[in-house]
Write a structure and sequence with these properties.
alpha/beta; binds magnesium ion; 23 helices; 19% strand; binds adenosine-5'-diphosphate; 37% helix
Length: 681
C-alpha cells in the first residue's frame, strides 16, 4: 500500500488512549497511522558505539556505556529520609562516576554492588569527581539502544520520546505492512534513492547516520517532486520554445542610453523576451538590488509588446512611486512615440474619463499607476503585459484581479528584496526567476556603521558634515509615537530633538498618518534640496530615489528584519556620492542580535542578506512565504536542500513536458499521490 493510504485513526493503535490521541492531534497534528509514520524526527542521537567518559570530546557530555556498581553512600540532609543516594560505579574505561539519585533512593536495591548495567547519562565534573544526576539504566545493550541511532521526535503534552517510539514500532512491526514505491522507477537509480518502504522504516530506526541521511534524502526528494508537480499542474506550466528577436523600438531605446547595459541586464532581457514571444503567459520574477536597473528592463521589454500592438500595465505600490515611474517613462519612451497614461485613485473627473476612453480604444500603449489601474471602470483594449514593481507589497488577490483584465497577460514581478533560491523554487511552482547580481558601474558602495549609544554624538557630527556639503539624510524610527511603555525613540519626539541638534537645517516629518498630498509635497521639496533631512518611519522603505541623499540613520535597528534594513539602506547610495548607513542599536542587544546586524555591515548584496535572513529566521517568517502556504515541508529544508530542490524542479519540469496529465503507467503513482494531497497544499 501507499503510506498515505494508511488512514487508520491514531486512537485505534493498541495502548493509545484518549489523552494520548488528543495530544497527538493537537500537539503534533498526527491523526492517522500515516501521519505518525510521517513524523520526521527533529534530530538523531548517535549511539552506534559505546562511549565512555574517556571518549568524550569537545562539548559532548553524554555517554552510553557499560557500568559495574562499586558502592553506595548517602549525602546531604541529617535524617535518613532527607538524604540522597549516591551510587559509585565504574565505566568501561575504568573511570569512576557518581550517580546522584535525587528522588530515586529506591535504586539502592536494584543497582546492587557488583551488578552490571548499560547506561545513558549526561555527565559533568564537580570537585574533580565525575557526576551524573540525569541518567537511565538498562539491563541489556539492546534496551539501551546501544548499537543504534536513536530518533528524537518533537514532543508535547503526555507524549514522551519513549511512547512515540513505541507507537511507531507497533505500527511498523505488522508483518503484512509494506509500502509501495512513490517515484517512477528510473529516478531511484538516477539519484541513488532508497525504496520508499526502506526509507520510511530507516527514518524511524536507522542503524547508522549514513542511513539517516539516505532515508531523509529519499523522503525529501519525493516530497519536493510532488510539490513541484502539483504546483506546475495548477498553473499550467509550459517550457518556452521560441527563439526571440529584439525589435527596432527596443534597439532604439538601448542605443539612446548614455551607458551600456550590464551583462546581467542583457541576460534578463533575453529571458523575458523569449517568454513574451511564447504562447503561454509569462510568470517571471525579476530580482535585483535597488538601483541594479530592473525598472529600465521593464521599460525596454514593454517595447517588445508595444511593437506588436499590445498594451502594457505598470503597477507600483504607492501613488508616489507610480508618479516617479511615470516621469521616468515619459522621458525614456515618449521620444519613441509611445503613448503613456498615468492612472491612480486621485486622477478623477473629466480627465479620468478621457484617459479611460483612450485606454479602452487602444490609444494608450502603457498605463502606469497604483492598484487603481485595476479598479472595475478601467478597461483595456488589448492588455498583454503586466509589470508589478515591488511585488511583495501586493497581496495575492490584487495580483489575481489584475491578471483578470486581459486574456491572461504576461506577468513580470519585480522585487528589490531578493528571495532566496530555495524559496523562489518552491513558493510558486511555475514562477521563473531572473536575477541581476551586478550593479551598474560607478556606484560607490554604501559604508555601514553599527552605532552604540555612546557614539550617538559622533554620528550626529558626521551627518552634520554631510549637510554642510549639501547632502541629505533620512532618520528612521520604528514608531510614529511612543505609547509610553516601550521606551523607543519615535519620529514625533525625535523630529523635535533633531531640530535642536541641527538648528538651521530644514527638515520634515513623514509617516503613514500624513496625507498623500502632504507626502508628495514634502518629497518634492526634498528632491529639490529645499529640505535637508526627513524624519520618517519605514514608509520610505520602497523606491524613493533621491541622488543627493547620502545618509540613512536607522534607530532600534534590531527591530527591523534584515530584508527591511536592506531595503531602507537602498534609499542611499543612488549616485556616485559616497553614502553611509548608521544602524543604531540599544546597549542591551544580545550577541545573536549583534551578529544579525553584523551581516548588514559585512554585505550590501541583497541575495546574500536574503540567504542569511532565511538562515536566521527560518522560512516561516520570510516575506510573502506565509500567504503562499506551500511551505509545510516535512522532510526537506529550505535552508539546506537547495541542491535537492533544484533537481526536483528539473525532474518535475521534464515529467510535465512529456506527460502533462500524469497518465502513463510510470507516472500513475505520482498522480495518485497528488490527488491524495500528499503535498499538503
Ligand atoms: P531598479 O529598478 O533596479 O531600482 P533602475 O532601473 O531604476 O533600478 O535604475 C536605477 C538607475 O540606474 C536609473 O537612473 C537608471 O537609468 C540607471 N541605470 C540602469 N541601468 C544602468 C546601467 N547599465 N549603467 C548605468 N546606469 C544604469
Ligand atoms: Mg525600483
Amino acid at each position: 500500500m501507499l503510506l498515505c493510504e494508511l488512514t487508520t485513526p491514531i486512537e485505534r493503535l493498541a495502548g493509545v488512549g484518549k489523552v494520548r490521541a488528543a495530544d497527538y492531534r493537537e500537539k503534533l497534528q498526527v491523526s492517522t497511522f500515516a501521519d505518525l509514520l510521517s513524523l520526521s524526527p527533529r534530530a538523531y542521537e548517535d549511539r552506534t558505539r559505546l562511549t565512555s567518559i574517556k571518549d568524550l570530546r569537545g562539548e559532548d557530555n553524554t555517554i552510553n556505556t557499560k557500568i559495574i556498581v562499586v558502592s553506595h553512600t548517602y549525602f546531604g540532609g541529617f535524617r535518613k529520609g532527607e538524604r540522597t543516594l549516591k551510587i559509585i560505579v565504574k565505566d568501561l574505561s575504568g573511570t569512576k562516576l557518581s550517580l546522584l539519585c535525587f528522588g530515586r533512593n529506591f535504586l539502592e536495591k536494584t543497582l546492587s554492588t557488583g551488578s552490571v548495567w548499560f547506561i545513558n547519562a549526561t555527565v559533568s565534573t564537580y570537585n574533580g569527581e565525575w557526576q551524573s544526576s540525569s541518567f537511565s539504566v538498562f539491563r541489556t545493550q539492546e534496551e539501551a539502544g546501544i548499537g543504534r541511532v536513536i530518533p528524537i521526535y518533537p514532543m508535547g503534552g503526555s507524549l514522551t520520546q519513549k511512547s512515540i517510539r513505541k507507537d511507531i514500532k507497533t505500527i511498523l512491526s505488522n508483518k503484512y505492512l509494506t509500502f509501495d514505491d512513490e517515484l517512477p522507477a528510473h529516478l531511484y537509480d538516477k539519484y541513488s534513492l532508497m525504496h520508499t518502504d526502506s526509507a520510511i522504516r530507516l527514518m524511524h530506526d536507522p542503524r547508522t547516520m549514513e542511513e539517516v541521511r539516505a532515508s531523509r534524502k529519499t523522503l525529501a526528494f519525493t516530497e519536493l517532486l510532488l510539490m513541484e508537480l502539483a504546483l506546475m499542474r495548477q498553473s499550467g506550466y509550459e517550457k518556452a520554445t521560441v527563439k526571440s528577436r529584439i525589435s527596432d523600438l527596443e534597439e532604439k531605446l538601448i542605443s539612446s542610453l548614455p551607458f551600456t547595459l550590464t551583462a546581467d541586464q542583457l541576460k534578463c532581457l533575453d529571458e523575458i523576451r523569449s517568454d513574451l514571444d511564447n504562447q503561454k503567459a509569462m510568470n517571471r520574477l525579476l530580482q535585483g538590488d535597488v538601483g541594479s536597473g530592473k525598472t529600465l528592463i521593464a521599460w525596454i521589454s514593454s517595447l517588445h509588446e508595444i511593437r506588436k500592438g499590445y498594451q502594457v500595465a505598470f503597477m507600483a505600490p504607492t501613488e508616489l512611486l507610480a508618479r516617479q515611474h511615470a516621469e521616468k517613462a515619459a522621458e525614456l519612451l515618449e521620444p519613441l512615440g509611445v503613448r503613456i497614461a498615468f492612472i491612480t485613485g486621485d486622477v478623477k473627473g473629466k480627465g479620468r474619463k478621457l484617459l479611460l476612453e483612450a485606454l479602452a480604444r487602444g490609444d494608450v500603449d502603457i498605463a502606469i499607476g497604483t492598484h487603481a489601474l485595476f479598479s472595475k471602470d478601467v478597461v483595456f483594449r488589448k492588455l498583454k503585459y503586466v509589470i508589478i514593481d515591488e511585488q511583495h507589497r501586493f497581496g495575492v488577490e490584487q495580483r489575481l484581479a489584475l491578471t483578470g483584465k486581459g486574456d491572461i497577460p504576461h506577468l513580470l514581478l519585480m522585487t528589490a528584496t531578493p528571495i532566496p533560491r530555495t524559496l523562489a523554487l518552491t513558493m510558486f511552482g511555475d514562477l521563473q526567476v531572473s536575477s541581476i547580481h551586478t550593479m551598474p558601474q560607478g556606484r560607490k558602495s554604501i559604508i555601514t556603521y553599527l552605532v552604540k549609544e555612546e557614539n550617538r554624538q559622533k554620528m550626529y557630527q558626521t551627518v552634520g558634515v554631510e549637510f554642510k556639503r549639501g547632502h541629505q539624510a533620512y532618520f528612521v524610527y520604528p514608531r510614529i509615537e511612543d505609547e509610553g511603555e516601550s521606551g523607543l525613540r519615535d519620529v514625533t519626539n525625535m523630529f523635535e530633538y533633531l531640530k535642536k541638534e541641527y538648528p538651521d537645517v530644514p527638515s520634515a516629518l513623514i509617516h503613514s498618518k500624513i496625507s498623500e498630498e502632504d507626502k508628495i509635497r514634502i518629497l518634492t521639496s526634498f528632491r529639490k534640496g529645499e529640505i535637508s533631512y526627513l524624519v520618517a518611519t519605514s514608509v520610505i522603505e520602497v523606491g524613493i530615489d533621491i541622488p543627493k541623499a547620502t545618509c540613512i540613520i536607522i534607530e532600534h535597528a534590531e527591530r527591523f528584519g534584515l530584508a527591511a534594513l536592506h531595503q531602507l539602506r537602498g534609499r542611499v547610495g543612488r549616485s556616485s556620492l559616497q553614502s553611509y548607513c548608521f544602524l543604531v542599536y540599544s546597549d542591551s542587544l544580545s550577541e545573536d542580535g549583534k551578529a544579525r546586524l553584523r551581516v548588514m555591515k559585512e554585505s550590501t548584496d541583497g541575495f546574500y542578506i536574503a540567504e542569511k535572513d532565511l538562515e536566521i529566521r527560518g522560512p516561516g517568517e520570510m516575506a510573502g512565504s506565509r500567504q503562499s502556504g506551500f511551505l509545510r515541508l516535512r522532510y526537506a529544508s529550505l535552508v539546506n536542500d537547495l541542491d535537492l530542490i533544484e533537481i526536483a524542479k528539473k525532474e518535475a519540469m521534464e515529467i510535465i513536458a512529456k506527460d502533462r496529465g500524469l497518465i502513463s503507467t510510470e507516472n500513475y503513482m505520482l498522480r495518485l499521490l497528488i490527488s491524495k494531497g500528499y503535498d499538503n497544499t
